[in-house]
Specification:
heterodimer; A: alpha/beta; Rossmann fold; 4-stranded parallel beta sheet; B: 6-stranded parallel beta sheet; 23 helices; 12 strands; transport (chain B)
């Protein structure tokens, strides 16, 4: 199986550690990972802000870059959702018929990281050890977009020595919403305040999720409030082998 | 784009959503009220919908019925007109709010009456009927308790189902004490703020209206095409009073409310109360077919209102918003609505459904901030009993809003310029790598201990409450090139 990593432009730029973690986990499970350098961005920001025509070259680039792989794995639920839900629509509405065909062919082989581990590789134990108190925030795109369900939690539960605690009002949005956090900054902040309170109430040292964008938002709020709670992409927890022999 | 000033729906002079939300957010009392009210109703809805093991099938059926009906809307509306006429009613067709207001005003004038009682109705709010009647010297009395509160306060509704959700009981007590006397029977002296006392005061005030007023105006939740039956679903019984006691009944109904048969109606009567009030069945369901000698209203008029609906129907993505049955489930689960309340939407239709319906009814250029008043979190879509994919329509309308702005201006907006530049960078791995290097250097200049506390320009709204991590020294693609590229060949 030829596996490609789609890092996403945001993780590439801001959270390269998440990409390294995905590579670590997949290699630990005995799989080789490739990183096609022609990859860039799924177009989510442009699409969600209303700039559809600008996304079409990105859709075409994605389809071209990953056409030859058996599986494309991405550590971002929202980018996976963008590709799955909107690339076919964009290709159909704005692209040549040939692009539409290629997108339809590729999209079923694009997986969010926890989907790939549980559904394709059929594993929930990736051999991690992480002796910390952790809470998990199901991001909107994980929960209601991709319907990841308990896949992330099944993976986290097998991590050795982890102390997994519940997050109050876990399923409510953190208020990020991409450009929403800029266009409607005050409303976004009000939602963020409730989310950070939930994180503090959970008693966790670390907040994890399947999307670094939401984590940057919540982590940014926690940091501003002077909290010591850290945020980590769950891939980084699954990659950890702290204190393991 | 055309001028849709004749359509009502929006409150003229309203600020954009972000501005209105900014002031609403400062009202901590409002936020407390909203949080309590919406979370209670949310839990009730989840409990009663979980009782039905065919809930998902019901949602699917409802969506399918609405799709089929809207595909053949013309047929069902003509059938409805024939059925209503055959049963003794009269059907009127109104292209927009102005025409509907004119029709209703003339119908009331023809009775010689100067007062009407009203059943809670979104359609008549949409067209601004009360204000229009007032200009013609006709007084409309709202009889739904919450609508009465809104009317006495010269206020605006902030929720589809519970329009006075922004008021607490002390405020309501004060309003009753001060205003009821100006509209009819006064509130009793020494009125307290216990719910039962307030309800009793409203009951006495309204009872006088029910017994003396000869004309009623209602909306409709549904109308069954093959029998001509019109249906109103309510909780208080005040609607039932209006629908049965007066001698003339005028119903204003959006054309999308028609359903083909009673079998179709059955699906919605299971979904609506559970989704709106969290009840298995609402206390009062009134269904009437034309007129009956010696019983109920002797004259019945049905005004079929278009007001932007056929325009909406022409939009293949946006048309699903017309399936809305006004249950408010989307408002109650919306994290944005929960913080801002309904007034911020500047429309009689607030919340997620308002954000997709309002711009379509009045033209997206006249409500351009509404499609952006959402994080696209999807809670509304999950809650919607007729499966309107609200996030999909929001994203679609965002594209239309951007396009409308582009068409209206000779120079591109700053946002459009930035987006175009970003698109160029993001379509090139080389430019992206260069931008990453620049961000890394720039970030280190701005950051203190790895955190950026202030961001420039339009990003300050973000950095007012959030730190931003400094971009790392090395992007993933650089790390890969340095550490992994050699390995690939070895395998």
């Amino acid at each position: 199986m030829r596996i490609a990593l789609f890092i996403t432009c945001f993780n590439d730029t801001m959270f390269p550690g998440t990409g390294r973690a995905v590579v670590t986990v997949l290699e630990r499970l005995g799989h080789a990972v490739e990183f096609p350098q022609e990859q860039t961005c799924c177009g989510q920001m442009h699409f969600n802000t209303g700039y559809r025509p600008d996304t079409v070259p990105l859709v075409a680039r994605f389809a071209r870059t990953f056409a030859d792989y058996d599986a494309v794995v991405t550590p971002s639920a929202s980018c996976a959702g963008m590709i799955r839900e909107n690339h076919p629509v964009l290709a159909q509405d704005h692209g040549p018929s040939e692009l539409h065909r290629r997108v339809d062919d590729l999209v079923p082989r694009v997986y969010e990281f926890t989907e790939f581990l549980t559904d394709v590789l059929g594993t929930t134990d990736v051999g991690a050890r992480f002796p910390h108190r952790v809470t998990y925030h199901p991001t909107c795109h994980s929960l209601r977009g991709l319907r990841l369900g308990d896949r992330p939690l099944r993976l986290l539960r097998t991590v050795q020595d982890i102390d997994l605690v519940g997050l109050p009002s876990a399923d409510s949005c953190c208020g990020f919403g991409g450009t929403f956090a800029v266009k409607n900054a005050e409303t976004s902040s009000a939602m963020l305040a409730d989310k950070t309170q939930g994180v503090l109430d959970s008693g966790a040292e670390i907040l994890c999720a399947a999307d670094n964008s939401c984590l940057m938002h919540i982590g940014g709020g926690l940091s501003r409030q002077g909290s010591t709670v850290r945020t980590m992409h769950l891939a980084e927890i699954l990659a950890a082998a702290e204190g393991a022999a | 784009m055309s001028n849709h000033g004749d359509r009502g729906v929006v409150w003229l002079g309203s600020p954009t959503f972000p501005e209105a939300a900014r002031s609403a957010l400062k009202n901590t009392q409002l936020r407390g009220n909203l949080k309590r009210a919406t979370s209670t109703i949310r839990d009730k809805r989840l409990a009663v919908s979980a009782e039905l093991d065919d809930w998902e099938a019901l949602r699917e059926s409802a969506a399918a019925i609405k799709r089929r009906t809207s595909r053949h809307l013309e047929h069902y509306l003509v059938q409805l007109e024939q059925s209503v006429t055959a049963a003794g009613g009269t059907v009127h067709w109104a292209a927009d709010a102005a025409e509907a207001n004119r029709i209703v005003t003339e119908l009331v004038r023809a009775t010689g009456e100067r007062e009407v009682v009203k059943v809670k109705s979104m359609a008549t709010q949409e067209i601004g009927l009360n204000e229009h009647l007032a200009e013609a010297g006709i007084t409309a009395y709202e009889t739904d308790l919450a609508e009465l509160i809104v009317q006495l306060g010269a206020d605006r509704p902030s929720h589809i189902l519970v329009p006075a959700i922004h008021k607490n009981r002390t405020e309501i007590r004060d309003l009753f004490a001060a205003e009821m006397g100006n509209w009819g029977q006064s509130a009793p002296d020494g009125l307290g703020d216990e719910p039962a006392e307030l309800a009793e005061a409203a009951r006495r005030h309204l009872r006088e209206k029910f017994l003396t007023t000869k004309v009623a105006v209602s909306g409709a939740n549904f109308a069954v095409a093959d029998t001509g039956t019109v249906v109103v679903v309510e909780s208080e019984g005040n609607g039932r009073m209006c629908l049965t006691l007066p001698s003339t009944l005028i119903t204003v109904m959006g054309i999308e409310k028609v359903v083909p048969t009673w079998s179709d109606l059955e699906v919605f009567l299971q979904l609506l109360p559970r989704s709106s009030t969290g009840e298995r069945m609402n206390p009062y369901t009134s269904a009437w077919t034309g007129t009956h000698d010696g019983e109920g209203p002797q004259e019945f008029h049905l005004v079929l209102l278009d007001n932007g609906r056929t325009d909406t129907l022409a939009d293949t993505v946006g048309r699903q918003a017309l399936a809305c049955i006004r249950c408010s489930a989307c408002l109650n689960v919306c994290p944005v609505f929960e913080r801002t309340g309904g007034h911020a939407y500047g429309s009689v239709y607030p919340g997620p459904i308002g954000a997709v319906l309002t711009p379509q009814l009045v033209g997206v250029e006249n409500a351009a901030s509404l499609p952006f008043a959402s994080t696209l979190c999807g809670a509304c879509y999950d809650a919607c009993p007729v499966k309107i994919n609200i996030p999909e329509v929001l994203a679609h309308l965002r594209a239309e809003a951007v396009e409308a702005k582009r068409a209206a201006k000779r120079l591109p907006t700053a946002e459009a310029v930035a987006m175009k530049a970003a698109a160029t960078v993001l379509d090139s791995p080389q430019l992206l790598a260069a931008a990453q290097k620049a961000a890394s250097v720039g970030g280190r200049v701005l950051a203190r201990r790895g955190r950026i506390r202030r961001l420039p320009g339009p990003l300050h709204g973000w950095s007012d409450t959030r730190d931003t991590p400094a971009p790392p020294a090395e992007s993933f693609r650089t790390w890969w090139r340095k550490n992994k590229e050699g390995e690939q060949g070895e395998r």
